[in-house]
Each structure stands twice: as structure tokens, then as C-alpha cells.
Amino acid sequence: MEHLDGEAARDNVVRTIGADHVALREQVLAELRRRIVDGEYSQGERLTETRLADDFGVSRNPVREALRVVEAEGFVQILPRRGAVVATLDETAVRDLFAVREQLETLAAGLAAERVTPEGIATLRRLIDDASKATEAEDFDRVAELNSAFHRAVIEVSENRWLHSISSAMYYHVHWVFRVGAAQRAPHSSEEHVRLVDAIEAGDAEAATTAARLHVEAAAKAAYGQRPTA
User: Fold this and answer.
1) I want to staple 112 with a disulfide (CB 3.0 to 4.6 A). Which of 26, 157, 165, 196 is the partner?
2) Residue 160: how many other CB atoms lie within 10 Å
3) How far apart are CA 135 and CA 129, in angstroms?
């Protein structure tokens, strides 16, 4: 019996250590993404494992793992003789992002209008209200976060699990692009979100699709204005 208790205790230690490791890695990954998206680590800035480990107060192992993930997501590039540097949102990257957004968000909007529930509408309107309050408070980090949350919520209302799956990484980049010009873009974006939700609530798939397309086009135009054209 004591032998079994000892094995159970060891099993519990192994599980706990494993859980802590995963939790630490995810915390480092989330914080690394946040600092890039919010501009604390600037585009083109070098990010060494040692520097990040010091910044986060952790060992280099979870940092190394987090860097692999953000590299795959397109937030950093590994360059010869420089190592990891924050990626640059050049014109091609931004255009590619909005090309995908238009296809994904118009589809999601149309489906959302067909499958909407009162609970879904309540969630969307709450996110719009929260974003308006954050805009008034000039908390543009929060506005950018809520903007992405709103679009993820539209996808949730669409009840299409494939859209949900393929959009996850994209919205980190949507957040990144939006944050650059959030102070100028936020009031217009909020008005466009209201028109989109009105169409979804009315069950008008065509109007919702149009509202989503116009919203993405307006967001793209604003983003291109922030990028050098050379």
C-alpha cells in the first residue's frame, strides 16, 4: 500500500511539473506576442534569448520555445548573424492580410446572419460598448484587443468551426496592424461594427456580407495609409 502511495505521489509530481512547464511556456508566449503587438518591441528590433529571458525573469528554454511559435506565426524572423528580430509590417504583408480578411469575414458575417442568436447579438453589442468606452478613455491597447475580440465573436456566431480554426493566428496580426493606427481608426471602426451587427441581428445575410466587406476595405485603406509606399 505504501509502495502504491509512493508511485501515486511520484506520478502527481510528474504531472504537476509538466503542467507548470506548459503554463510557463504559454505565459512567455502570450507576453512576447503582446509586447510585439503593442509596439513595446519595435519592428526590426533584435530579440536575443538572453535579453528576453532577463525581460521575463525566466530561463532561456521557454523563451526559445516561444520564439519558435512566434516565428511560425510571422511575428519574428530569424536572420543570419542577427538571430531573431521583430518582423516588419511591409506593404505586401498588410495587403496579404487584408485579402484573407475580406474572404473570411464576409463569409463569417453572412453565416452569422443566418445562425444568429439573442445571446450572440448581446455579446457583439457588449464588445462594441466596451470598445467605445476604451476609445473615450484613450486606452488604445484595450481598443485593439476588443477589435479582435469582436471579429472572433462574429466567427463564433457563425458557428463554423473551420473559420474559427483558421482565423486564430490571423487575428493576432489584425490586432498588430490595428494597434498602429488605433487612435485614428477606432471611432470609424466602431460605427462600422454597429452597422454589421444591425445587419446580422436583422438576419440579412446579404447586408451583413456587404457591411463586412466595406468594413475590411475601410480598415485596409487606413492601414495602407500608415505604410510607406516605396
Assistant:
1) 157
2) 18
3) 10
Quick one: 182 exposed, middle or buried, by C-beta within 10 A (0-12, 13-18, 19+)?
buried
**For residue 13, which amino acid is it?**
V
Alpha helices by DSSP H, listed for 38-117, are 49-56, 60-73, 91-115
Q: Provide the 8-state DSSP code for 230.
A: -
Note the helical H segments in the chain.
2-37, 49-56, 60-73, 91-115, 118-136, 140-158, 161-180, 182-201, 205-226
Question: Pairing relation of β-strands 83-86 and 76-79?
Answer: antiparallel
Which run of H or of E encompasses 39?
Answer: none
Minimal CA–CA distance to 112: which of 3, 221, 39, 200?
200
Cα torsion 48, 181, 150, 66 to 10°: value is 0
Which amino acid is it at 144? Answer: A
Amino acid 14 reads V
Q: What is the pLDDT of residues 48-83, one digit of tens each?
A: 999 999 999 999 999 999 999 999 888 999 888 888
CA-wise closest residue to 146 among 158, 155, 163, 134: 134
CB 111 within 8 A of CB 164: no
